[in-house]
Structure formats: C-alpha cells, structure tokens
Amino acid sequence: MADILPPDMLERSRTSPGLLSNAEKDRLIERGFLGLYRWYASRSQETRNWNPDRSFDWRAMKQDLPPEVITVLQGFFAVEQYAPDFTSNLVHLVRRSHGRSHFQLRWGSEEEKHADAWENAVLFSGQRSPQWIAEYKERLKSQTWELPFPDAIHNLVYTVFQERATQLNYLNMMQIAQGKSTRPHLKGIADPVLARVAQTIAVDEAAHYNFFLEGVRMYLYYYPERTLEAIKNVIGQFSMPAAQLVPDWNAFFETVYRAGIYGPREFQRDVMQVAFRNLGIESRKALEEGIRKTREVPDFEGGNFKTTAIWDTFDYGQVEGDVRRLHVKIQDYEKNIGFDLYDPTEFVENPEVPRTRREAATSNESAADD
Ligand SMILES: [Fe+2]
Ligand SMILES: [Fe+2]
C-alpha cells in the first residue's frame, strides 16, 4: 500500500463485500494527497514566499552573540543543508504518487531556503569566516543522508515527528533571540534579525508538519493497524535527521539541551504528545497496549478482517472528523479553481470504522442529501 502499488486485480475478490479493497484505499489516499498538495503549493506561494537573502536585514545582525548561539545556528545549518539528500531520497520513494512526489519537490525547495537562511545567519554573525564555512560544508557534503526507514509509511510517520521537533527547535531559538531565555548564559539577548529568521522558518516547519500529519491521518483512517504499528516503531527509535552525519553533533546537541531548546523532555511533551493529540492517540502506553491486544485477535490472512480491536487504540471519531475536514478544504480549493467541474475529490467513509446507531443514522442522512 505504502508504495502506491498498481491496482491488484486479485485484490477485489479477497475483499469481503461492503469493505474497501486495498487498491481502493490507496486510490483514496492518493487523491487526498494530490488535492492537499495542490492546496499546499498555492498556499505556500501566497503566504510564505520569502527569500533567504532579501527577506532579512542581515547587516543588522548582532556581532556579539554568545558562542553557544553560534554553535546552535551552525547545527541548524548542518542539518538543513542535507536538503538535496532528503528530497532526492523521498522523491524516489514516493515517485509513483503524483501528490506526494510533487509535494516533496516543493518541500525540498522550502528546506533549501532554510539551509541558505541558516548559513547566512552563521556568516553574518561575524563569528565564522567564509573559509571556515566552506570547509565545514565540504565535510558535511562528504556524507550522504539516507532514509531512516525502508518503506513509505514509516518515513511519512517519521517526518511528522521530525517536522514538529524542528519547528520546536526554531521557536525556542526565536525566544532566545527575543531575550526570553531564562538560562543565565543566554539571558537578555536581543537580536530582532535572528528572531525573525527563526520565526519565519518555524512557520514553514509548521506547514510541513501539517501536510505530513494530514497524510498520516488518512493512513490511520484507512489502514489503522499498519499506521499505529509504524507510529510505535518510529517513536521507539526517534532521533533528529543527520545526527550521525554532522561531525560535531554531540557538542551541538549538548548546547541545544543546555539552552533549553530541545532534549528528551521537550520531545516527550512538545513533540510526541502534541502529535499524539493530533492523531487521536491518548498516550504511548495506550498505543502499545492497543497494538498488543490487536495481535490477540485471530488474523484472517489477506483480508481486512483483523482490525476489530484496533479501533479501541485511538479516537477514530476524531480522525474521521479530521479526514472529512481535510476533504472539505480540498473541495473548497477545487471549487475555487474549477476542478470540481471535471473530477472533484470525494471523501469515502471507511466501512470498517465502528459506528454507533446515531452516527450511522447521521451518515446515512448526509449520504441521502448527496
Ligand atoms: Fe527545514
Ligand atoms: Fe521541514
């Protein structure tokens, strides 16, 4: 499913009547991604069309920032400058999905801006020479970033946590640059240029987080078991991208931790719990427990039958509501352009989702209204 396989003709006969085949689920997810991507690209151009050179008054950057801040900026730059590796690997992984592969190109162009902006920040801090930066870049580029997981669903889930973690890093850097840090060594810094850079990039990261989050919600809605399993696996071994590639990573991580920007506590509270809330998952414990219970249910190989217990693992009502809302957003966009005249994106309920009598009644009503 995750690799957007061609429709399998045998699939249909294996699916019990009334349920969606995997091919149909894949088609629905792909349509959702395509619609979301079109909406995203337009939104990105309208609201976040900044330039890493021209959008900031670089010459006004403070020249006496504490060395810890420079170490952090350098680390941000080091991670972001792998944008071509991130992009080429991810594009290749999802190349058969129009919505996802085209999105990854757009995403890559935004990540590339982040790399250039952080490099400018390092340069204009006045504390690293252009020669030093050039050598550092060469060292970084001698390594290649590879995908953290072999399949598309795990990488999609990973990206949700990674984007949120990155956003958090930048928001906390913004706070420092606004003089809001409570750490003695970082107190009272006021660098409006740096604060704006951090804020601008954090807004992009929030948009990335949202795109991938909507993607994971669609997978969670149509393929709850595999998706929850992927979430469990990803949080079990989460680390920031390029941690193995950046030569001075430990110094960077230590500095980031001491600055109160990011560490295990922030990951728990401001990354994992936030993403869980957005995915209708109560806690890590509830997730692991739910998966364990699901495994106790007999498995009818090849069918869609074994998902009964999985529905207790997360708030499927919330996720269905979110997937519906996503489709309304896509439909509004399509109406705006005129796509609806030809081939509108439709939301299709997953019939496996358990329904209370009341819910079933309302969903029949709305079906009748159509
Ligand atoms: Fe970024
Ligand atoms: Fe990002």
From TrEMBL:
Organism domain of life: Bacteria
InterPro entries: Fatty_acid_desaturase-2, Ferritin-like_SF, RNR-like
SUPFAM superfamilies on file: Ferritin-like (SSF47240)
Keywords: Fatty acid biosynthesis, Fatty acid metabolism, Iron, Lipid biosynthesis, Lipid metabolism, Metal-binding, Oxidoreductase
Keyword DNA-binding belongs to the record: no
Known EC number: 1.14.19.2
UniProt key word Magnesium: no
One GO MF term attached to the UniProt entry: stearoyl-[ACP] desaturase activity
Required cofactor names: Fe(2+)
Biased composition (Polar residues): 361-370
Stretches the record annotates as Disordered: 350-370
Enzyme class: oxidoreductase
Family classification: Belongs to the fatty acid desaturase type 2 family.
Subunit-structure text: Homodimer.
The protein's name: Acyl-ACP desaturase
Taxonomic source organism: Deinococcus navajonensis
